[in-house]
Amino acid sequence: MSLDTATLYLVATMVAAMLGAMLLLFGKQENIPALKWWGTAYLLGAASVALWTLASNTLGETLSLALNAVGFVACGMVWNASRVFHGRKPNLPGLVLGALAWFAAVMTLDPAASAMRMTIGAGIVAIYAALTAAELWSERRRTLQKRWPAIVVPVLHGFVLMLPILLGDLLHPHGDMFSGSIWVTVFSIELVLYAVGTVFVIFMLVSERTVTAHKTAASMDPLTGMFNRRGFAEATSRLIEREANAGRPVTALIFDIDHFKSINDRFGHPAGDEILKLFSAIVINTLRITDLSGRIGGEEFAALLPCSLEEAVTAAERVREAFANSGIVVEDGPVDTTVSIGVAGGPAGTEFEVLLAAADTALYQAKRCGRNRVEAAEELPLSLENWRRMTAGRGASSATAARHPAPRIEPMGAR
């Protein structure tokens, strides 16, 4: 079966042009700059190959070389698209370096050395493919199992492109025209596969990033930028597991802004939101980068520190002092910003719910003792179920005390 090479090249360019238009349109609709780069690269490369295939015999030497150079620019745009996709700036010198190297090489070669020209051109494309693969490899925030297609496709493109060229040079040692080789047919088929494979990888990366963005949005509190309850619970489980494997203790902190309802009533909810944002910024800036923190309720925040109880109490005091000295002032006057903090630590492997229950008990004690203070839990509950029973018993005792002449006890969890 004989395959017409020119027809195969035209099919490849039509597929590339169609995919490029789709990428460009999708990039404009979703405002993704990298897709615009990829789409433009596909359209530019398809146009240069199509013109070269259809009119290579009628074009002059200079125009033919210029079309090849445009193709190398398109390869540079694919590399730059991978840079832009991962938040890096485009490498504009590298964008045209391949085309300049091509011009410099062909100007020094014998015009009859067509095989050597094709070898140099294939080498330039292979280098750009390797740079693209290296750019994708350097972005390893995702697991390798999910990222390998993005790396393998450009690597295979460079390998498939160079291997036939090198073998072709070996098979034609006397400078026969390379255009008559079977490898040219292989090139045209590989171009179609590479175009389709690359678009598959592009949409895989975009889909992965979209899913990650949605997961992040579902785990973050939009007002403060901290973890919400769900995100905080997921992050703390990973931290506790890591510290348990290393045999290190962890400590939980619960923060509750004092008289927050009064702040909302006196100064309005916008002022209350500013207080919440101020406190979250103080927590983030005061704690270490290895500490986890999140907003788990209205004015209630929590943190998990991979350290001993004593170190956590010191960190809690720093947060309390910084918030108390923040001195925020609104139109109606200064706002009293204080926070009560409960701290509870445990040995390696202690469940987070147990730590949180003990820290909540300590927070309750801090509220009873006048607020604006740090209290450390004296001991951990034997189990979360025991703590729940103890909490229920405390509530029942409070109800009994309300019916008999005895000092009033504030129920557990009152702020």
Can you walk me through this structure?
The protein has 415 residues and is an alpha+beta fold. It folds into two domains: 215 residues; 175 residues, Reverse transcriptase/Diguanylate cyclase domain (Alpha-Beta Plaits), CATH 3.30.70.270. 67% of the residues lie in helices and 8% in strands. The protein contains 13 helices and seven strands. It has a five-stranded mixed beta sheet with strand order 2-3-1-6-7, with helices on both faces. Strand 2 and strand 3 form a beta hairpin. Helix 2 packs antiparallel against helix 3 and helix 10 packs across helix 11. The longest helix has 38 residues. The radius of gyration is 33 Å and the shape is elongated. The C terminus is likely disordered.
Topology:
Blueprint: H1 5-30, H2 33-55, H3 61-85, H4 92-108, H5 114-138, H6 144-171, H7 182-219, H8 229-246, E1 250-257, H9 260-267, H10 269-286, E2 292-295, E3 300-305, H11 309-324, E4 329-330, E5 333-334, E6 339-346, H12 352-368, E7 374-376, H13 384-403
Parallel strand pairs: 6-7
Antiparallel strand pairs: 1-3, 1-6, 2-3, 4-5
Name the features:
415 residues, alpha+beta, Alpha-Beta Plaits, five-stranded mixed beta sheet, two-stranded antiparallel sheet, 13 helices, 7 strands, disordered C terminus
Q: Determine the oligomeric state from the structure.
A: single chain
Spatial sequence of strands, sheet with the most strands: 2-3-1-6-7
Supply the number of helical segments: 13
Helix content: 55-70%
Task: Please state the CA-atom Rg, rounded to the nearest Å.
Answer: 33 Å
How many strands appear in the DSSP assignment? 7
